[in-house]
Amino acid sequence: MLADHLKGRLARPLLLILLLTGLSTVYARGVYQEPEEFVTEAFAGKVPKTQRIWLSGELGNTYRQVMQEAPPQLRLRYWKRETRSVWILQAIGKEHPITAGFIVERGRLQLAKVLTFRENRGWEIRYPFFTNQFQQVGLGEQGQLDTHIDAITGATLSVRAMNHMARMALLLAKQVGDTHVTP
């Protein structure tokens, strides 16, 4: 009798915990902002003509090295006006792609934002407490990010994906002629 009573008392909180965990996982996945909206905001509504860069040859090899995966397509779209460029990139977190937008100006990241998150874990990278770390980050002499980005416990692969994309956005901006790069 006591065992049955304890089972009932323990089952309800356990069921509640499982239910809430499942809901938070479902809630974490989603589209937080469409890429087109991100680009529009980046240029205050006056979006420049879409340009394309080929991810082949040396640049394709650089992409593979930095992103640790092959380019998803041979041509990558970007938008550029003067010293500002906008990049929409994807990287695999643990199993699924994470889509993020990056604004680069004069060789420094102005904004990094998670646009779509498809993983079960690591969704904390979408919040400003994490993405604000990328503001004013540039490339060091070895082509690495010049600022340490703090990790998030339980989100290691998502953090790594964001670091790879941030570094790639800076390298791509440099490639398309961001001539006002600041060290």
Compose a concise summary of this entry.
By secondary structure, the protein is α+β, with helices and mostly antiparallel strands.
Can you tell me about this structure?
By secondary structure, the protein is an alpha+beta fold. Helices cover 38% and strands 23% of the residues. The protein is built from 5 helices and 6 strands, in the order αβαβαββββαα. It has a 6-stranded antiparallel β-sheet with strand order 1-6-5-4-3-2, sandwiched between helices. A hairpin with a 2-residue loop joins strand 5 and strand 6. The protein is globular, with a radius of gyration of 20 Å. The termini are far apart. About 8% of the residues have low confidence.
> Any idea what the shape is?
globular
Got a strand count? 6
Strand order of the largest sheet: 1-6-5-4-3-2
Structural class: alpha+beta
Order of helix and strand elements from N to C terminus: HEHEHEEEEHH
Radius of gyration: 20 Å
Helical residue percent band: 25-40%
Number of helical regions: 5
Report on the biggest sheet. Answer: 6 strands, antiparallel
Content of β-strand:
15-25%
Termini, distance in Å? Answer: 73 Å
Mean pLDDT: 87
Uncertain runs: 14-27
